[in-house]
User: What shape does this take?
Amino acid sequence: MDRAFLSLDTVHTLLHRRFSAKKFDSKYHLPKELLETILEAGRLAPSSYNTQPWEFLVLRGARKNQLLPHVYYNDQMIHDASALVVVGYMHSSAINAGYLSGFCKPEYRDRVVNGVASLFKDRLQGDGVLIDAYLKEQCYIAVGQMCLSAALLGVDTCIIGGFDPVGVGKVLRAHCNPPKIACLIAMGKSAMQITRKARKSKESAIKWL
Assistant: This one.
């Protein structure tokens, strides 16, 4: 077996170190190089058919705070966070041959294009709700990879689902043509103690067959 990049103890520490920070240190500034590395972890995440349907919009400072009226009870947390990443998923019509040809190797391009078309038409029955759910679940793979990478770099995060997508979309539309929104990720330095994970037992979660 190849030698592991990290020791088992290091991996276990990392897994327990990542938690949802509900309070951030408003004086902390997340260095751009760390933020870029975290975003790169999302960009390199796996996705079904390698569709990569995500778009990451990075907001800091005053632009980040424009979203505060639309994030319900998460306003103070987002205000104090050093950065906010809006995780969006593309409109299904944009995932077409032209888009996929931009990064698929020629020998795989036709297979991928046909596979995605079949997925949308046959498996997901052309249902816009099902297609959106599929695209959103791909984004959460990238979200998990970003948050774990952030923990490895000593950056705290909180994945946020409590927001008004219409209101957030209107704010973003003033600056760009926004994708549909899957979630938000607040990033920075936690201003609270790391909480002990409350998880069900290994016996309940894992079955060896």
